[in-house]
């Protein structure tokens, strides 16, 4: 029997399990670059306008660090820079997909059951990588096709699409290696996210200190980061096709380590030895809330630190971003609709905080779905066999789904206000205003967390559909105002109803309404969970 025996049979199984999530992130990421291209073509139709925009943004280290360098002043070059964060999101989605279908399967015991059949040792890892690789190839082709349809040259479109796809493939392979190192899926995700975070930090430092990609002293940091390779392919600015070899060689090198390791370890074990806990539980683990804190604290800390750093970058870029669009009435109108302020810098901050709130909603969904993960792993039923009630157990997890967005958005508001206040010389005035602007986004994030909780309690098999709702809100927020969609379409997203507190006039009524909706969703979730079987597969 070959070590790859059974791979062909596992691929359809993976596709069936990811039939909702996989198409969502592929299509969503594929649509965004074309929408950016159309936006730039409409807002900056002449070379002079694009040159002015470039001169005011490329010189600001915060903007370059956040989005990456820009090479040239064409619509295509500006689109590549604007889509810089898309590479990070595609890499994250690919990494998590591979971990989900490798280490998570082992941890749940399904890999052992499949291994009792005619299944080679390489089959599970290979099937997960093949599906993720194919999804990224499709993503790259869709990105290229969308950019061509938007009127951009074919060579640059294909190079950029290939760069995004191959970089995501590289981190999918990192996920395959991370799955071999630890005994738990959480540990594998932690290792993979640590590598991704390091790559982003290297790219951030290299781009911020590398004169925007023009050969500064720190640019070598970007060259050693896989996230720094796609923009340095110079799509639409004298294409460097050889840069595509870098993620290919990186993927091959990581795979050459992952595959031998996968057959040298025991099934269910990892290369890194687990850290043994104390012989007796501490006082904090005497109830469901203490246990929930133990399960959620690592992720909450990571998200909080990440949001704090993001706030520093966004706040530092705000003043330059306002100057960049000064005099462009179309941009000012769009930013005012998104940010709710007549001041361009504050309109920029309002719009970026709205986008940050979507990420905070992602944490809320993740925290709510942790309850479903505990249930499917078989750890909930023994707890419910004790004196712990169903409502208390689920409420413990939902508490973090509610408090987590509050914490991360508060930190994001504080650091954004600090950075912006330092840049304009008004820390005392900027910090409380931006803290309030960040906290104003919380009720909208709560609604999505409440929806995820309702799915866990009522339709647990479809609980992952909460991510599809988040993706829809992201799509409406990114292109809805630009395309001037009808108000009823924009109102589908709860984030549309968040008042922009940086504006002159706002009311708290929408916040109260969103909070009431969240309370109703959570109440229904608790009742539904109390009535259904546990576990439900």
Structure, described:
- Mean pLDDT is 84; it is low at 338-342.
- The protein has helices at residues 7-17, 21-43, 47-57, 61-67, 75-82, 84-100, 103-108, 110-115, 123-149, 154-181, 185-208, 220-223, 245-264, 288-324, 329-339, 344-376, 380-384, 390-424, 427-439, 442-458, 465-483, 487-490, 509-531.
- Helices cover 72% and strands 0% of the residues.
- The protein contains 23 helices and no strands.
- The longest helix has 37 residues, at 288-324.
- α2 crosses α5 (75-82), α6 packs antiparallel against α9 and α16 packs antiparallel against α21 (465-483).
- The protein starts with 6 loop residues before the first helix and ends in a 6-residue tail after the last helix.
- The relative contact order is 0.09.
- The chain has 537 residues and is mostly helical.
Topology:
Layout: H1 7-17, H2 21-43, H3 47-57, H4 61-67, H5 75-82, H6 84-100, H7 103-108, H8 110-115, H9 123-149, H10 154-181, H11 185-208, H12 220-223, H13 245-264, H14 288-324, H15 329-339, H16 344-376, H17 380-384, H18 390-424, H19 427-439, H20 442-458, H21 465-483, H22 487-490, H23 509-531
Name the features.
537 residues, mainly alpha, 23 helices, 0% strand
């Amino acid at each position: 029997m070959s070590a790859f025996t059974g791979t062909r049979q596992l691929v359809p199984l993976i596709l069936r399990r990811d039939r909702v999530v996989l198409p969502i992130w592929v299509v969503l990421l594929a649509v965004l670059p074309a929408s950016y291209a159309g936006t730039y073509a409409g807002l900056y139709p002449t070379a002079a306008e694009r040159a002015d925009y470039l001169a005011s943004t490329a010189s600001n280290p915060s903007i370059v660090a956040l989005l990456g360098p820009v090479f040239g002043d064409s619509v295509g070059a500006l689109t590549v820079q604007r889509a810089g964060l898309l590479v990070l999101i595609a890499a994250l989605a690919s990494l998590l997909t591979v971990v989900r279908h490798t280490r998570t399967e082992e941890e749940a015991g399904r890999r052992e059951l499949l291994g009792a059949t005619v299944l080679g040792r390489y089959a599970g890892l290979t099937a997960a990588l093949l599906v993720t690789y194919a999804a990224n190839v499709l993503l790259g082709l869709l990105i290229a096709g969308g950019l061509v349809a938007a009127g951009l040259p074919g060579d640059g479109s294909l190079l950029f699409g290939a760069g995004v796809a191959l970089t995501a493939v590289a981190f999918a392979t990192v996920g395959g290696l991370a799955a071999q190192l630890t005994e738990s899926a959480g540990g594998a995700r932690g290792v993979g996210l640590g590598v991704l975070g390091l790559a982003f930090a290297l790219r951030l430092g290299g781009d911020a200190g590398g004169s925007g990609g023009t050969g500064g002293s720190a640019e070598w940091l970007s060259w050693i980061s896989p996230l720094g390779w796609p923009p340095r392919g110079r799509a639409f600015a004298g294409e460097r096709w050889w840069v595509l070899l870098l993620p290919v060689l990186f993927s091959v090198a990581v795979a050459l380590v992952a595959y031998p390791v996968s057959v040298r370890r025991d099934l269910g074990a990892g290369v890194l030895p687990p850290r043994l806990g104390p012989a007796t539980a501490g006082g904090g683990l005497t109830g469901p809330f203490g246990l929930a804190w133990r399960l959620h604290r690592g992720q909450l800390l990571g998200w909080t630190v990440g949001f704090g750093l993001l706030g520093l970058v966004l706040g530092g870029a705000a003043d330059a971003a306002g100057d960049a669009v000064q005099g462009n009435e179309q941009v000012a109108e769009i930013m005012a609709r998104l940010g709710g302020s007549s001041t361009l810098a504050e309109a920029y901050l309002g719009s970026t905080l709205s986008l940050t709130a979507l990420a905070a909603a992602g944490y809320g969904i993740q925290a709510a779905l942790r309850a479903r993960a505990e249930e499917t792993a078989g750890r909930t039923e023994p707890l419910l066999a004790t004196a712990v009630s169903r409502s208390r157990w689920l409420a413990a997890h939902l508490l973090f789904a509610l408090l987590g967005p509050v914490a991360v958005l508060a930190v994001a508001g504080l650091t954004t206000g600090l950075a912006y206040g330092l840049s304009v010389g008004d820390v005392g005035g900027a910090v409380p205003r931006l803290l309030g602007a960040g906290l104003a986004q919380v009720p909208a994030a709560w609604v999505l967390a409440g929806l995820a909780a309702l799915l866990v309690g009522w339709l647990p098999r479809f609980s992952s559909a909460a991510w599809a709702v988040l993706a829809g809100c992201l799509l409406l927020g990114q292109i809805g105002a630009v395309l001037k969609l009808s108000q009823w379409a924009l109102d589908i997203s709860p984030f549309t109803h968040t008042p922009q507190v940086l504006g002159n006039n706002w009311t708290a009524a929408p916040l109260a309404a969103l909070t009431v909706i969240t309370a109703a969703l959570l109440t229904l979730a608790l009742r539904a969970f109390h009535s259904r079987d546990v576990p439900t597969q």
